[in-house]
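REQUEST
  id: r-88c1
  op: predict_structure
  target: SAM-dependent methyltransferase
  payload:
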Amino acid sequence: MAGFFAGYGAFFRQFREQFETTGAIAPSSRFLAAAMTRFLASRAAGAAPVRVLEIGPGTGPVTDCIVRQLRPGDVFDLVELNGEFVQILQHRFEAEPAWSAVHSQCRIVQMPIQQFVADSPYDFVISGLPLNNFPAALVREIAEAYFRLLRAGGVLSYFEYMYVRPVRKLLTLGAERRRIVEIDDIMAGHCRRSRISRDSIWINLPPAWVQHLRKND
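RESPONSE
  id: r-88c1
  status: 200
  body:
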């Protein structure tokens, strides 16, 4: 419980200081975390080991679900840009039993995801990045990185807060509206081509959709 409040406090502090890259006032709820990891959790018993990439884990609410689903031989990489969040994640891998049990299978990398290069593609890419806060050109780069890092047949899961882009398109003007429209076009295009399901998570602050996309080539 102390770890939860420490993580919540750090998240709120980073929201105030670095809203553009934090993007929420609270960590993801356990319901959102469960939805983000449901394809990983649905693996058949005895399935081959998998490679998992989490992008923008923050203080680790989704990470906590992932580490509990790892099996022997799985590989789990985390890419996080925020230095304070990296320190929190490192501490959790050292201090929390469920995390430390798989520490040898995990790696934290501090860098922008568009600069990250992997030695092999991933079976699951799970992203908590606040895409609506970024310039449209950066969103395009990030989306390209998602699919570059995903193996053929692999699943990308990411969330977005409900109705944010439609509301912003109605309430904003000029360059800001053009930015939101372009982001919407970029991500809607990927969803049209690759989406396999969408979950609605109402018990979250704010409520969110989780988009699940499969790489087809």
